[in-house]
Amino acid sequence: MNAERIYKILKGPHISEKAAMSADSGNQVVFKVATDANKLEIKAAVEKLFKVKVTDVRTLNVKGKVKRNRFGLAKKPNWKKAYVSLAQGHDIDFAVVE
């Protein structure tokens, strides 16, 4: 996998209450990922970018909601998220302040 593809796979962390609970209890991190990414690509991208050991990746497609605006109804885009389980002793800290 080339370097460009690695940066296109991971779009960013997904921060929510459920993501925080899974991080505390199961040593998992939740990412927004590209819709065409598969589990092997996600695992390789996380291991290469953050230098951690990944044990498991679970993905799910999130359906876009239908929202009302001044023009009528509009549909938000579909997106994909990945629950990445890290090995014991590994951690990703997104709140690093220099």
From TrEMBL:
InterPro entries: Nucleotide-bd_a/b_plait_sf, Ribosomal_uL23-like, Ribosomal_uL23/eL15/eS24_sf
Keyword field: Ribonucleoprotein, Ribosomal protein, RNA-binding, rRNA-binding
Molecular function terms, GO-annotated: rRNA binding; structural constituent of ribosome
Domain of life: Bacteria
Pfam families: Ribosomal_L23 (PF00276)
One GO cellular component, as annotated: ribosome
One of the GO BP terms on file: translation
Family of this protein: Belongs to the universal ribosomal protein uL23 family.
Family annotation (NCBIfam families): PRK05738.1-3, PRK05738.2-4
Assembly and binders: Part of the 50S ribosomal subunit. Contacts protein L29, and trigger factor when it is bound to the ribosome.
Function: One of the early assembly proteins it binds 23S rRNA. One of the proteins that surrounds the polypeptide exit tunnel on the outside of the ribosome. Forms the main docking site for trigger factor binding to the ribosome.
Record-given protein name: Large ribosomal subunit protein uL23
Organism annotation: Litorivivens lipolytica
Originating gene: rplW
